[in-house]
Known about the structure:
This protein is mainly beta. The protein has one domain: Beta Barrel (Maltoporin, Chain A), CATH 2.40.170.20. Helices cover 9% and strands 60% of the residues. It is built from six helices and 38 strands. The strands form six sheets. It has a 22-stranded antiparallel beta barrel.
Amino acid sequence: MNTTHAFRGLAAFALAALPLAVQAQSPSSASDDEVATETLNPLTVTATRAPRTADETLASVTVIDEAALRRQDPTDITDLLRGQPGVDVSTNGGFGKTSSVYIRGTGNDQSLLMIDGIRLRSATLGGASWQFLDPRMFDRAEIVRGPRGSLYGADAVGGVVQLFTPQGEGAPTPRISLGGGSFDTRRASASLSGSEGGTRYHVAASRLDTDGYEIIEGEGDKGYDNTTGLVRLSHGFNNGAEVGVLALRARGNTEFDANGTPADTDYVQQVAGLYGELLVTEVWKSRLTLSEARDKTETAAYDSLFDTTTQTLRWENSAWFGPHELVAGAEYQEDDIAGSDTGSGTYAEESRDNLAVFAQALMDFAPVSVQAGLRHDDNEAYGEELTGSLALGYDLSEYHTLRASYGTAFRAPTFNDLYYPYQSSTFFGTTYITEGNENITPETSATFELGVRGQYQQYFWDLALYQTDVEDMIDWAKDEPSPNVVRYQPTNIEEARIRGAELAVGAQINDWTLAAALTYLDPEDRKEEKRLPGRATQSLRLDLDRELGDWSLGGSWVVQNHRYGDKENEERLGGFGLANLRAGWEFSPGWSTRLTLENALDKEYETVRNYLNAGRAAYLSVNFGAL
Length: 627
């Protein structure tokens, strides 16, 4: 397949979708229009930490709602994110293998993953373990592209992905799903949700078990299992106060190849939170949240244990002054890696704390809107950082909004960057040394973005242009201090410039649902004058679904060009096109079945050198309840 030609053809199709959507509009009922408006211009909270519709956020936002999640029914969260506007994914194979998510060309450790407002990541590696999250536990995803350091602090350089669990609403609703498919995969999930007397609840559990497939040629199948439990409860009082609790825990095992020898890793991913919210006055709401996130992996083959927890106490206040809103608060966070062992030793420091204060003003002077934010972080390990943002919006008409923004962010050095224990190994007469560096400082970035959005009743389009400059980039540089000695240690020597353009189109017309995303990226290592590794520079994703009475049919097509597997741009990984097909049938009231065919064209492709992704795979499920 000629990926370049395919990409151009699909790009032309996406651009053509906008006028076709206009021509295809036909009279519809008011309720249909309301549903389309909620889907195409939904309320979001991640971009501003305050409810705003997508066109009011003055940011590049993508919302994946419950209907899209259930239609696609992915086995991995990264399948849902791949090819979304400004988002790229690389994996060391499928089914629980190491995955990285790049937002606007920034690294996996330069973007945040949050679950219901709780940040989840490894404090040693810095990035999130996307591969261990079951998509069936969530009913919504928000992707905010661009720096959010003024709201979320460290590491929100490229953007934020937030996953939301169901809250529960209405009469008690049970849901059950059983299924399986290729690679001897078995899946099961069950949940119960509802509300009564001001109390909302949702409890769920899921299990995935698979024999996997041959990720590295000749090394045999690599299996994976995941067991996840979720509890979410909240109660609202007559005076406007609310309290709630969340607990999500995923654990299991993933198999891989360790230099030709079968190995496996036991893992735990966990978030827990308790919050209280009080309407102090008619114009002032205060919220206090206490949370903990845990990322744990244990690999016997390496005699290693990485067990990191992040505890956070956050106090946030919202005040309204007519059409304007002020969000301000403070946050205390402590990272702890006690007990972690690399296999070569323990860390010199096992904990650090961070104290931050922040404020954001959301002002509406129609047709002009202004958003300004400022945050100060004081970290025990690497000192103080000040980040800020300013966004301006102008309503060109009832349907079109022009926006411009400038924001700064920083990436904090991880425990590995600062304190990785001294490790020395000799192979074929050469000694390799790995060690952290306590003298490195955080990366800093500045991003300018210009965008315009067209928001209509049954469709929308959003175009954004941006540039991000990263200074003092942390890089594990290779050094040869003497003959036959190679040393790897992080330093602040690199600079990067990332330019890009994104076009998102969505439409909901009669029984058709369309979403298209076109991304162009230029991620350059300014020092080496090379492309940053692991990123494709051209990407298109097309999702198209049709309701046909009791049936539904749909598909997704993701096309990406080549990427490089190394900093020197010598390992070229070819582009690819993936077609995923799906069909659903409600064969009886409350009962349905769903069939998905992933990689329908059986494309063989790599996003990391020597690690194959799954070929054609089919999965069938039988469901009870509104899945």
